[in-house]
Design brief:
- It is found in: Cell membrane.
- Helices cover 76% and strands 2% of the residues.
- It has 288 residues and is mainly α.
- It has one domain: ABC transporter involved in vitamin B12 uptake, BtuC (Orthogonal Bundle).
- The protein has a two-stranded antiparallel ribbon.
- A hairpin with a 2-residue loop joins strand 1 and strand 2.
- It is globular, with a radius of gyration of 18 Å.
């Protein structure tokens, strides 16, 4: 009985944690480049997922095309978010910039309601990942899909940041924007790029979470807060730590879901997030 209970926690927790990990990577990327917390990150996931669902309803998407389309849709949404928030207020106070992302999240939520309505929508599974059994551990296809997307996203992002000229420019901006500007780096473009890449990550996360829970107009806030919590747990110091923060949060939440009734699950989850944020490492003031 205990083994079955643990297997359920691991399967559900990894599915949730992988999504939170992808979201946390986006939070970390934007925070590193601009020292800004983007509270519209969850709505980027929502709009990206709804856009791909609509596109899939119009045409038959192969897995490779679905991945490309999701990344492109999220990239454009993230770029649009930057153009309407930080891009207009580069010299504004951090509080004003933060509130602009909050306002943008409400606008994006309104767009989702106008375009797709308030009823939950269940997107198709666009990535044909089968169930996996690793010894006594069983991973359902949703869990396998979320983990594969998360790990590949983390590896590709890490290679981009360390092996490409543009990625090194982004890292230079995150370490010292003034020095990077003196070296000829277009720091404004790097800020915009961090938003765009975070949008692409959020849209890819939608491919994982959409078939699990469906897409609802009000889901962005919850996913965004949990992605933010995961990034804070990871300390914003490295992609691996941030992703591990997402996995940890997902496993703990899955244990709470199986332990508590539905009425108390969300309350317990957000209480846990508050505790984790209070005791999280303070290294987030460092640059990765």
């Amino acid at each position: 009985m205990l083994a079955l209970y643990l297997a359920q926690i691991i399967n559900s927790g990894l599915a949730l944690g992988a999504v939170y990990g992808i979201m946390a990577l986006g939070f970390s990327l934007i925070f590193s480049a601009s020292r800004l917390i983007n509270f519209a990150q969850g709505e980027l996931l929502l709009l990206g997922g709804l856009s791909i669902m609509t596109l899939a309803g119009v045409m038959q998407l192969s897995p490779l095309v679905a991945l490309f389309a999701a990344g492109a849709a999220g990239y454009l949404l993230g770029r649009a978010l930057f153009a309407t928030t930080l891009g207009l207020t580069l010299r504004a106070s951090p509080l004003r910039q933060l509130m602009l992302t909050v306002a943008a999240s409400l606008v994006f939520q309104g767009v989702a309601i106008l375009a797709w309505g308030k009823n939950p929508l269940m997107p198709p599974r666009l990535l044909p990942i089968p169930d996996l059994r690793l010894g006594p551990l069983f991973l359902g296809r949703d869990t396998a899909t979320a983990l594969l997307l998360a790990v590949v996203s983390m590896v590709v992002l890490g290679l981009f940041l360390t092996r490409t000229r543009l990625g090194r420019a982004l890292r230079a901006t995150s370490q010292n924007a003034v020095a990077a500007r003196l070296q000829g780096v277009d720091t404004v473009f790097c800020h915009a790029l961090s938003f765009a890449l975070a949008g692409a990550l959020a849209s890819l996360a939608a491919l994982a979470v959409g078939p699990q829970t469906g897409l609802r107009y009000d889901m962005g806030l919850g996913l965004g807060l949990k992605g933010f919590a995961a990034a804070t747990i990871g300390g914003y110091t490295s992609l691996g730590k941030v992703f591990a923060g997402g996995i940890l949060l997902g496993l703990i939440e899955a244990a709470l879901v199986l332990t508590l009734s539905g009425e108390f699950k969300e309350t317990a989850t957000y209480t846990l997030i508050i505790i984790l944020l209070v005791i999280a490492p303070r290294e987030h003031d460092e640059r990765p």
